[in-house]
Design goal:
The protein has eleven helices and 17 strands. It is α+β, with helices and mostly antiparallel strands.
């Protein structure tokens, strides 16, 4: 009798815990919210009033990594399953897609969003990657981590090594799936940089750009669909990853290209899935409408060519074998950059360069710089350098010069 009462108490406790204790989910397992992309009413021509719910966000230009829009983009935050961007790229760089692994009990028992793996299943690395990035399977994340790193801890070391290699100073990984952990974090900006790096890998880009596919688990086919609600619904979107945990809230990283403008948008800490979606749309639409690509290389060289001719005539070289200096400008790190349309009229070119020299002057010696300014802020700069060395005169040169002048003088006198 006592045993039955005890069992009933245990069952009641379990039921109560499910009702009152919030579960830690990952990705789009959100039982509190029904959501449809088609239900959104977001202006596609938004030009102002950027009311954003997400606690941190950033939009960067993929070609230059420059920030177009941001809020709290350098603030450390939990990033939920956007973690899997790093998981996937580390796996791709360490293992072949055709390799096969056997699913461990630990992997099969991983909670949160799941691919549906069971202990002993045999799955290829390629299919696990699709399960990781489309279905956001935490079980797939653990399986890949164990296969590549030997353990979750070993794989986390590979993830952190990659973060260090990419110069991500405010990013740290503990797990391959992103379930909440105080030592597992990044920033919106560094997540954008990581995403930009990962998207340069053709295998990675192909996976995250896939809307749905059929994979094989232990010889059985399974069709999976991408959790990224923008993919296939917003013009130009071609990746990359969603995320959700109780600690991170709703997160979304999007890659979107229209014309020659190619962007990464990151939103972290949105209150609902609808907010993360509308925030991403607002930020992307605003960016495409209000930023244009400017060829600063042409802008600078047009001015430099005209300035250079006058400069070379008026420069003075003391004690040099030549009185004429030959110069050029180095290319900018990025020849084309995004500029807000309102600031384009304020673009200007400034040149600073020495005019008086004492020989010798070395080949490639830097003697000045050229700057592009926008709204009084420097947006690009480059060096001006010497293209032909000018040696210093020696005693023989002076003697030859004296004799030449002496002979010329008497010839004219005669």
């Amino acid at each position: 009798m006592k045993k039955k009462i005890f069992l009933r108490i245990i069952c009641m406790c379990i039921i109560i815990s499910y009702i009152f204790i919030p579960c830690v989910y990952a990705d789009d397992i959100d039982v509190s919210e029904e959501f449809s992309f088609d239900s959104l009413q977001v202006s596609r021509t938004l030009t102002s009033n950027l009311s954003i719910n997400s606690r941190a966000y950033v939009v960067i230009d993929r070609n230059t990594n420059s920030i177009l829009l941001e809020k709290n983009s350098m603030q450390k935050r939990k990033m939920a399953s956007t973690t899997k961007i790093m998981t996937a790229i580390v796996v791709i760089e360490h293992r072949g897609l055709s390799e096969t692994t056997t699913i461990s009990k630990k992997s099969a028992n991983t909670g949160g969003s799941r691919l549906g793996l069971k202990t002993g299943d045999k799955v290829s690395v390629k299919d696990l990657l699709y399960g990781l990035m489309l279905k956001s399977g935490n079980d797939a994340a653990v399986a890949l981590a164990e296969y590549v790193g030997g353990s979750i801890e070993g794989f986390a070391n590979l993830m952190n090594n990659k973060a260090n290699e990419l110069g991500l100073k405010n990013t740290h990984f503990v797990t391959p799936h992103g379930l909440d952990n105080d030592n597992h974090y990044t920033t919106a900006y560094e997540l954008a940089l990581l995403s930009n790096y990962a998207m340069r890998n053709k295998t990675f880009a192909s996976i995250v750009g896939t809307k749905s596919c059929t994979i094989s688990i232990n010889g059985y086919s399974k069709t999976i669909h991408n959790t990224n609600e923008l993919l296939g619904n917003l013009s130009g979107v071609y990746g990359i990853k969603t995320g959700f945990t109780n600690g991170a809230n709703r997160c979304l990283v999007s890659a979107c290209k229209r014309g020659n403008l190619d962007l990464i948008c990151v939103v972290l800490g949105a209150d609902t899935k609808k907010f993360r979606t509308t925030d991403s749309i607002k930020l992307l639409e605003y960016s495409f409408e209000n930023f244009k690509l400017i060829d600063i290389d042409k802008l600078a060289k047009d001015k430099f060519i005209n300035w250079k001719e006058e400069y070379e005539k008026n420069s003075f070289i003391d004690k040099g074998l030549s009185n004429t200096i030959s110069i050029d400008m180095k290319n900018f790190e990025h020849s084309i950059i995004p500029i807000h349309k309102e600031n384009v009229p304020s673009l200007c070119v400034e040149i600073e360069c020495d005019k008086n020299f004492i020989a010798p002057i070395q080949l490639n010696q830097v003697i000045g710089n050229i700057r592009i300014k926008c709204d009084n802020q420097i947006v690009a700069s480059s060096n001006i350098f010497v293209t032909k060395e000018i040696p210093k005169k020696n005693i023989c040169n002076y003697l030859h010069e004296f004799l030449s002048n002496y002979i010329s003088y008497f010839k004219n006198f005669a």
